[in-house]
Write a structure and sequence with these properties.
Blueprint lengths: L1 H7 L4 H24 L3 H8 L1 H17 L1
Amino acid sequence: MFQEFYKTSEWLTLPQITLIFFFLFFLAVLAWVVFRMRDKREVDRLSSLPFQSDREDATHQESIHG
């Protein structure tokens, strides 16, 4: 019964296409991390991003309040 359903189903290629798409996306992100993160300055810049807006907000509020 299931063999007949899957034999005539047109939707069987969609999971294969999405698997290939996400696998290629994963490889692209992995390559970006491996090759782009070799630069120590870039890693330091990215690691300071979460704290950067706090510093800018504090500086901006100090300039407003005198």
